[in-house]
Design brief:
It is built from 4 helices and no strands. The protein has about 80 residues and is mostly helical. About 15% of the residues are buried.
Amino acid sequence: MGRPKTVRNENQLGALIRTARKKKGWRQVDLARQASMRQQLISDLENGASSSRLDTILKVLAALDLDLSVTDRRTPSFDPSEY
């Protein structure tokens, strides 16, 4: 995916997962198979479902050859509308 992407909400995470999946030329069912889960869960993630567990998200990212990293915000602020 190149440079790091900032993810601050479920919709941004879903868009990142969708972009990475499409870059690999995979369908949702292909990613689901690779991550050992149902296709519906991939669809829910890509559509910003907020009920996904962290271990599920980590499996999907691993299947896409992506890592999760946490960094300090460049400009510390809290905007509740971003979440």
